[in-house]
Amino acid sequence: MNRSHFLTACALSTALLTAGLPAAQAASPSSPVTPGKRPLNIAQFGPAIQSLSAARAAAIDAAVTTATIPQLQSLFAQNALSSEELVKYYLRRIQRYDVNKLNSMTELNPDALDIAMALDAER
């Protein structure tokens, strides 16, 4: 993975992570969708989200919640984590905490999983 791809992946991870902060659990939406706002389409990722087991999601959560960038690089280098798994993990968090709750995400790249798989193949 070259530096540009890594920085892009980190930026995506950071953006996705901020959408799923634990404080979101306490938030109660006054309205599921802001008037005039297009609802987030996460349905297209349903099968991918379901393919990530709860146990694996918990393991990824434990690994990445407080990880530094060098630690994440090490996980990728050791094949202990893949870009595809990381994207599925964050999609799962978006589905759980953001959709019809925070509504902080406005759009998801429909090619996110394909891009992640390409980055895994490159690595």
Would you mind describing this structure in some detail?
- The protein has 123 residues and is an all-alpha fold.
- The protein has one domain (3-17, 41-122).
- 60% of the residues lie in helices and 0% in strands.
- The longest helix is centred in the last third of the chain and has 20 residues, at 83-102.
Sum up the structure in keywords.
single chain, 123 residues, mainly alpha
Mean pLDDT: 78
Spell out the helices and strands N to C.
HHHHHH
Class by SSE composition: mainly alpha
Task: List low-confidence stretches.
Answer: 14-31
**DSSP summary, beta strand count:** 0
Q: Describe the largest sheet.
A: none
The protein's oligomeric status is single chain
How much helicity do the residues have? Answer: 55-70%
Number of helices: 6
> Over all CA atoms, what is the radius of gyration?
15 Å
Query: What's the N-to-C terminus distance?
Result: 5 Å
How many domains make up the 3D coordinates?
1
Fraction of residues in β-strands: under 5%
Global outline: globular
Task: Chart the SSEs and their pairings.
Elements: H1 3-19, H2 46-51, H3 54-64, H4 69-77, H5 83-102, H6 112-122
Helix pairs in contact: 1-5, 5-6
Q: Can you give me a brief rundown of this structure?
A:
The protein is built from six helices and no strands. The chain is mainly α.
